[in-house]
Amino acid sequence: MAKFGLSQPVRRIEDPRLLQGRGRYTDDISVPGQLHAYVLRSPHAHARILSVDTSSAASLPGVHAVLTGQDWLDDGLGQIPCAVPLKNRDGTPRAETPRYGLAVGTVKHVGDPVAFIVADTYQQARDAAEAVFVDYEILPACTDLAHAMDADQPQIWDGAPKNVCFDWATGDKAQTDALFAQAAHVTKLTVVNNRIVVNSMETRAALAEYDPASERFTLHAGTQGSWLVKDLLGKAVFHLPPEKFRVITPDVGGGFGMKLYMYGEYALCCWAARKLQRPVKWVSERMEAFQSDTQGRANLTEGELALDKDGRFLALRTRNLADMGGYLSTFAPFIPCGAGTKVLASVYGFQAIYANVLGILTNTVPVDAYRGAGRPESNYLVERLIDAAAREIGVDRIELRKRNMVPASAMPHKTPVGQTYDSGEFATVLDAALTKSDWSGFEARRAEAEKRGKRRGIGMAYYLEATGGDASERAAMRFAEDGMVDVLVGTQSTGQGHETAYAMITGHELGIPIEKIRVLQGDSDGLPSGGGTGGARSLYSEGAALLATATSVIEKGKQAAGEVLEAAPADIEFAGGRFTIAGTDRAIGILELAAAQRERAARGETVTLLDAAEIAAIPAHTFPNGCHIAEVEVDPDTGHVEVARYIVVDDVGHALNPLIVRGQVHGGVAQGIGQAVFERTAYDPQSGQLLSASLNDYALPRAGDLPDIEVELMEIPCTTNALGVKGAGEAGAVGSPPAVMNALIDALSPVGVTQLDMPATPEVVWKAVAMGKAA
């Protein structure tokens, strides 16, 4: 019998099932009579659709339907919505980018869906796609974020002049400008947060069924929360009550934000299933994913840091061009605005901050949340600015950070962008990272590398994350006939280890061994609502719901135990999984009690069952933070960059399962290193073609490209949730890009390189070294 307290490094209970091939993903699901679908996508980045001739394709063997955007409109279906109603600085609403399941009128990026072919087999559907004739009028395309607002660039949407779909701001502009006017020094820096192709291991997929008797849809899809998809399918697309949709999310092979959204393919499968009265299945190919999954980052940001004569930070001023792609995705405007700007203060005591964000439309794949969702972009700017300021004013970069960190004695601390940090000991965490990395001994390692012809650099970044998500979460606990306890949750695991964490909490609260706990997720019929997974919210949100539900189970258990033991509920005590009459040895275990009550209820007796469900309010976010230190070695002859050493000291509050936390940090750091030195998303400036559209052309980091990632956890409990936890899922991706890039600049500054943009590929680094030497 396995009983584990919290804070134990428990191995993930879901791993044996997944590693032995017993996972069940969307593509593993088949139903009798299902048809297969293929999406015909635009080969052009920007073009007017003059006509679509489907007659030849529709006549081919096995083909059941060839659907177009006009069919979508004729059937009265609605838009795939952007769910963020943002206001511009002048109070006007942001621009709209009407988007349907299939393109109507024009295509806005390579990969825009144009026709949906349904056939007996996938190969038949794919072959039929080649017989669909689309007459395009090719239009000029715009793929360069830096120049999208220029007068000579094509207009992508009529309602977004100069391709600006929103112009938003936050902070006190007047105070910020006044502080800049009195500053002793101002550091200015423009940084690129390169566009990322998410590349989850499992591609997106969908299987839809329609029951004409109940007029109800069932959709299997790999999402990050079934309830959002259910609501948008019902309200926005089909104009039906959401209860007409059951969305089931099975195992999901990676999400990273990209699988949060309402994608057109989900609606297309449902629509076709209703039209054809047959189940319809679609599975994305890898190259298709490059052209249709939401992408990440894609920011160009100007930052200014104002300091007084003593090197104290006065104010921060930013102007961010955020690439939205060809359409506004579900949460896209929120990512650089509400999500990104709330961490601009980071761990530093700024007096004022003003941030201006412009959403820019380009003929590229839409951009939305990617691991960290706006916070990595902001932290990258701030940490790069601080290193630049330290060089300019001749102050040690560590000293400059320490001089400006908010002290623990100032908690709770309210920032100029309206966030209130409940806890944090930033200087203590920084010192621990310096010690763990042997920062003081680095020059000896640099000298040793020089003897080998390499340039070694060390860089650090202190990050702060602000978690997010829905303001409530739901859980249910049901005592099943097979003796298991079913725990139903409103979040969705995409590989994070939720089953283990939730079983640990439930087992700890109810005194039940974790092998008796079965965590159920992803079925919108199982729970009436759920907030899904995103913004590193799962543990503190679902944890609160589990605690509330466990409390209800125990209260019901006291009533039930009183019925069985013939005692007043007030005299019943609960501890260690047993209900006991106070002052006696008369007791009953919780599982035995649940079984007894279920049997009595089956005989028709009126009894108290232990099943319970609760909704927990989530009144506050959490603020995980930490220090990343990277050491890199550069071969100046080839530009090759090796990340030689990587240290993380993290404050994620109470580490419920340190093994899982470290794994999450490892994954985030790997993605951050990938962004910093490997992953380049390239569009052809003339045609708008995605040149890096496969894993042959897009470089993901491999195991051999990564060092051992050393993670130390400092537990400074969060004060705003009962578990004391701070969201850890995104933290690794927030701190790693600036740490690596600061290390790279440290390595190359002796040859005159003080500015580099991500991704620092060998070509980029070699050119920078050559130019630095020439200068």
What does the model show?
The protein is an alpha+beta fold. The chain contains 19 helices and 28 strands. A hairpin with a 6-residue loop joins strand 26 and strand 27. Helix 10 runs parallel beside helix 18. The N and C termini lie far apart (69 Å).
**Largest sheet: spatial strand order:** 3-5-1-12-9-10-11
Number of strand segments: 28
Could you estimate the helical fraction of the residues in percent?
25-40%
Report the total helices: 19
What are the low-pLDDT stretches, counting only 5+ consecutive residues below 50? none
Percent in strands:
15-25%
In this structure, how is the largest beta sheet organized? 7 strands, mixed
Question: What's the Cα radius of gyration?
Answer: 28 Å
The whole-number mean of residue pLDDT values reads 97
C-alpha end-to-end distance: 69 Å
| Shape descriptor | globular
Which secondary-structure class do the elements indicate? Answer: alpha+beta
Brief synopsis:
This protein is of the alpha+beta class and 775 residues long. Helices cover 29% and strands 23% of the residues. The chain is globular and about 90 Å long.
Keywords:
775 residues, alpha+beta, 19 helices, 29% helix
Structural topology:
Blueprint: H1 15-19, E1 35-41, E2 47-53, H2 55-58, E3 63-68, H3 69-74, E4 106-107, E5 113-119, H4 122-129, E6 133-138, E7 164-171, H5 173-181, E8 185-193, E9 205-211, E10 216-221, H6 226-238, E11 245-248, H7 264-276, E12 280-283, H8 286-292, E13 299-307, E14 313-325, H9 335-341, E15 352-361, H10 375-393, H11 397-404, E16 413-414, E17 420-421, H12 426-437, H13 442-451, E18 455-464, E19 472-479, E20 485-489, H14 498-510, E21 517-521, H15 538-565, E22 572-575, E23 578-581, E24 587-589, H16 590-602, E25 612-617, E26 625-634, E27 641-651, H17 658-677, E28 709-713, H18 731-748, H19 762-774
Parallel strand pairs: 1-12, 10-11, 14-15, 20-21, 27-28
Antiparallel strand pairs: 1-5, 2-4, 2-6, 3-5, 7-15, 8-13, 9-10, 9-12, 13-14, 16-17, 18-26, 19-20, 19-25, 22-23, 23-24, 26-27
